[in-house]
Amino acid sequence: MKSGVKQSDLAADSDASGAHGTACPACQSPDSRTLFEATDRLYRTTTRNFRIIECRQCRLIRLFPLPDAGELRAYYPDDYWFTPEAETVDHLEELYRRLVLRDHLNFVCHALGSSQADGPVLDVGCGGGLFLRMLAERGYRVAGLDFSPAAARLAWKGNAVPVVCGTLSNAPLAPNSCAAVTMFHVLEHVEDPHAYLAAAHGLLKAGGRVILQVPNAACWQFRLLGKKWSGLDVPRHLWNFRPRNLDLLLERSGFEVVRRKYFSLRDNPAGLATSLAPWLDPMARRVRRVSESQPMRLCKNLVYFCLVLACLPFAVLEAACRAGSTVMVEARRKQ
Questions:
Q1: Distances in Å between the alpha carbon of 293 and those of 84, 228, 278, 297, 299?
Q2: What's the pTM value of the predicted model, to 2 decimals?
Q3: What is the pLDDT of residue 10?
Q4: Per-residue pLDDT tens for 119-146?
Q5: What fold does the segment set 84-333 form as a domain?
Q6: Per-domain residue ranges for the chain?
């Protein structure tokens, strides 16, 4: 398979080792190399170029330089984490969203069934709260965290689930109180992934589970598409993990991996479609406030949906080969 990360894009200068300042958060090695430069291809919040660098030892991929907190906020549009129209969403759209969330729901329910821990499930970065609502419908106690006040309001009003604004380090829950902490597409966004996992460890009961999902930098899509892979999501994704990077981080944070899943019906085929045609992505068009008539919007949505369907066989194949574009991990809190 020919790699989309072309040799001509790589920094050949061995003197670049260690020139990027901070140590790798996974293996602590100071040595790294530049893969390529990229900017915000999806939402176009900035024209600034960022370097994508790779640790020479464990191959964790990260953004360089890391934006400061004030700068990073500018790269997150107000409606990035949730769908403002969700209060008026029609029945068919909700059925579709429930369908594509089944992978997440079943994965978490299996983890909860395997664990002896009792307590609420805390979903970090919960957005509008539909996933929590689906868990609650199965009889689980739930709570959510999100940094967006609008998302929290939507979760309370639209999905009747308790959500507060905040981060995992200041979650309003007692230590050792949760059966599980879930983080779907969160860890790649935070400045210190180890600190986030350590905070989750402190909230979990003995034997509790952390369930997380991130883009998989060991996927075929990245090898084929390089900087055009939507999983990079420059500059919002500060880290791009391979499964072995997650293993190191989880072990350092007091967890042991129980199982992995490399396919998500919601994310894998749609991610490939967005890589191929970012201008068709419905959320990107909404975030960028693209001016289009109602018929044009419906037409673009239909074309995008057909592209997602066309990407499905490839997404299933790469996942079957343990190279899917996302990886979902269940890890057990060590005693």
A1: 19, 28, 19, 6, 10
A2: 0.88
A3: 35
A4: 999 999 998 899 999 999 999 999 999 9
A5: Rossmann fold (3.40.50)
A6: 84-333
